[in-house]
Amino acid sequence: MADELMADIEEKTPRPVEAVPAGNPKKDDSEKIAVATQWQLMWWRFRKHKLAMIGTIVLVLFYLVSFGADFLAYVDPEESEAQRSLMAPQPIHWFDEGGFRPYVHPQIGRRDPITFKRVYVPDIKVKVPVEFFSHGFPYKFLGFIPMDIHFLGVKNARPAETLFLFGTDMQGRDIWSRLMYGTRTSMTIGLVSVAMSLLLGITLGGFSGYFGGIMDAIVQRIIEILRSIPTIPLWMGLAAALPSSWSVNQIYFAITVIISLIGWTELARVVRGRFISLRQEDFIMAAEILGCSKPRIIFRHMVPSFVSHIIAATTLAIPAMIISETSLSFLGLGLRPPAISWGVLLQDAQNIQALVISPWLLIPSIPIIIAVLAFNFMGDGIRDAADPYG
Amino acid sequence: MVSYIIRRFFMAILTVLAISILAYTIIQLPPGDYVTSYIASMSASGSAVSEGEAEALRLQLGLDKPIYIQYLKWFGLILQGNFGMAMEWGRPVADVIGDRLWLTIIISVAAIVFTWVLALPIGIYSAVKRYSIADYVFTFIGFLGLAIPGFMLALIVMYVGFAHFGASVGGLFSADYMEASWSLAKVWDLIKHLPVPAIVLGISGTAQMIRIMRSNLLDELRKPYVMTARARGLAEGKVIMKYPVRVALNPFISTIGYLLPYVVSGSLIVSLVLSLPTVGPLLLKALVAQDMFLAGTIVLLLGVMTVIGTFISDLLLMWVDPRIRLGRN
Amino acid sequence: MSDINSAADTILSVRDLKTYFFQDEGTVKAVDGASFDVRAGKTLGIVGESGCGKSVTTQSILRLVEKPGRIVNGEIFLHKADGSVRNLVQLPPNGSEMRAVRGGDIGLVFQEPMTSFSPVHTIGDQITEAIMLHLPVNKKEARKIGIEALRSVGIPKPERRIDEYSFELSGGLRQRAMISVALSCKPRLLIADEPTTALDVTTQAQILDLLRKLQNENGMAIMLITHNLGVVAEMADDVVVMYLGRVVEQGPVDDIFHSPQHPYTRALLQSIPSIDSQPRVKLPTISGSIPHPYNRPSGCSFYPRCESCIKGQCEKAEPKLIAVNDHQKVSCFLYEEQK
What we know:
The structure holds 3 protein chains of 3 kinds. Chain A is an alpha+beta fold.
């Protein structure tokens, strides 16, 4: 039916010339297009999708932050001090004495005698110079190179006591530095979970789609059932059962497994759908008649023609993973302190009274929204580009 | 038609069974059994339980039997309406849950109604006026709605309520009615409190529904029957409302089955932030305290609730779509 | 324009119609200066390969061209039953007068009997809707007329079929039902856009017979759009041959088939297998394929595929549609020279 329809549509609205690079059909381009590989065609199409390009750039930045979290943080994320509880974000003054000399004023804290709240006042007489690539707390870059260079620091003072870019939380820990580490955790948890989901989805969806029959029926029913159950209470139950004695790394791994159990059904559906539609294609039939082995048909003929769709579906699955982790951690059932993730950071914001006095506790929600948007844009772009001949 | 109903019903039963097994798994996951936790909770309240008593209790509860027998026993009790004891509360689970399940249902339904009321006209508008400024604005808002997790939206709403109006926008009842028994006034109070949670809960679903409605309708608008309806001389507005919108409605209705679990899931977290008296906060409390019978029962009831909802949406779909009613497709 | 066929019996004249689609990638000139007449009670066949602008011509006549398409030039004169003549191009496309023309004066039958009916409305719903829009009747009377309309196209048990859905009918019955909807208000012109393409051969013949029978009974004109030359030969009184949005040749059916003048028409006719053709000889085909709409050739758009192309002329200028004899008009430089 679709083909008949297409024939009709084609007559009134000819489809845009497929994969013409910059939208300007030029004659010499057609030769370039004719010899371009599938991936080149996809890239040309993807490049035209502006939001997708922006999303990709944003995500590259986010993952750079994940790599360089220690470098970008200027305070040890665990360093707490009750005397610095709930300090407001502090502006950096970039210019001084007619030149680029960034500095900050130190904050003096005292307790308000009437409200008993801690209030902080900048000491405008003192200027503490802010410096780049400054020495700070020691860490291991990429996990094995010992270093103590940080992107930001203050001259002749401990940054923990003077620099509060995004303010501090209830225990007086620096939110900027914690956010850098939180980004690393939350961004990687999305990737690791999606990888596991993909493994499950491809295996089960692939089997189901390729072999069909009883296998397909069983897998389909499982997927159908899983999709009709509210998932959050289930995963809450699973997460709550994780022993409290487990280490941060064990919990991290367990949570990724739990989250990946959410995403695989959708991926399996996509894989199965592709397998089924491909199985009926003539070129698969031809390969079968030529006597290709099953693995050769699957990996040599089928997989290359749907890999782009899988990438699109995978990209679109990541945001749900990130939101799941964040939600679980926010409830206190996902990652637990001392682990730092966006969800863990937002736990502080659960206390509405604290939030009203210190709205900066909501800052960690901004990267969540941006990352989720970026993944969605990029996924949409890949999905549109996935079929460069279509 | 009959075979469709039977198939759907069979699927619903199967799903309930699967949910019950998952719920029982959750009950069994933490170390120790019912009796150990019972002893713990008794000794916390000052009364000791002897070894002999514990053994007797185990035998009585059948905890010495294989796990599947225990599951069958538990499921049998559930079917009789006996959900066991909630340790934390020292009261039967059914008592503790009380009105909360109904309130969860009410909020979920309110959120879905909100989703529909908003998504339907916007989806239609966006499809008909494709690439208009309003379409881009709605698409952008839709993307934002997708990107903001429910709990975060709830936090923002709470923050704005407190910071700018100095009042809590959370809760489902005013203080006067919190403990009152049900009356017309209490129902009215509930209705007045519903919009905020319904909107917070419905917004991300709305974003998805708008996208679904828009793309469904775009597909339908291209079909020849729209052109033939126009060629009959029907006015443009009537053409769109009578034909493509009506056809695009079918897949839209079938998404209830997918929306419902999503909304119920979301309601748990949103309830926590907005302090709504639904099963959400109760579930969290139960999980943190490892009060597994309570937690397992809540998971089971939520699951059964969505299965019933999905089944209703299947029937609804059959009612509106003659292709299903007459056994084609 | 002095027309050979423009006489008192003309019901629809299209003059220099241009319908363009303005897209980001470029402008598609789907119809680019088409002119032809439809005579009352006669059948005009419009032939051409897919993409030649046949369907857009239909949509232009009914003013149903969708964005980004637009009629940029030309006139479409409809001679109404009361003797008045209206230029459809000047009517607002969704105004009441244009809507009265659609379904009232002009009926449309589409290529796709499967998808031409809404899958969630009964046949009766859609046929009575058309009747109530154009005739002053109530619902009950409309239903009665609808049943009669279904009966007249040869649908058995119409009083039962009227309450069925389109997917419950076979392809042939569906197309009959479609015709009955289009004819329910007794239009004076029926536009049939590839009415038999999606049907199997026997059903095709039945539908064509039905159309001819209905034409004899009602005296309506038919504009038959098709790529099937066999159908045209069987049905049409006059023929218009289109190529890339332009009319390349037009004339009475006998002349077109027996003495085609334009190289494209000749090539088309040669590519039909015939009983008289030599066995084991390859059927001639038209070399090349229809150019992409964005890359329309300059000059005569057929020149890259034309065997009689005059170098230095055909690719530079556009030939005009001129009469080559008493009946036929051709747009080709081969004939402009003779004048």
